[in-house]
Amino acid sequence: MVASETSSNPWLAIPPGRPVAGPRRIVAESWERSLRRSLDPERLLPEFELPDDDLAGYRRDHPLAAVLPVVRRLLLNDVEGSGLIVAIGDDEGRLLWVEGDAQAKRSAEDMRFAEGAGWAESRVGTSAPGTALVLDHGIQIRGHEHFNRMVQNWSCTAVPIHDPVTRRILGFLDITGDDRAVGPHTLPLLEATAMAMEAELMVSRLRATPARSSTARKRIAQVQSAAAATISTLGRDVALISDGRRIVSLSARHSELMTLLDWHSGGLSADELSHLVYGDTGAQLTLRAEMVRLRHALDALDPRLAPLSRPYRLPSPLDSDSGRVLALLDRGAHRQAVDAYTGPILPSSTAPGIEEIRESLRMRVREALLTDASVDVLLDYAGSAEGETDRGILMAALQRLAPRSPRRTGIVARLEYLDRL
Question: How far is CA 43 from the centre of its chain?
Answer without folding.
Answer: 29
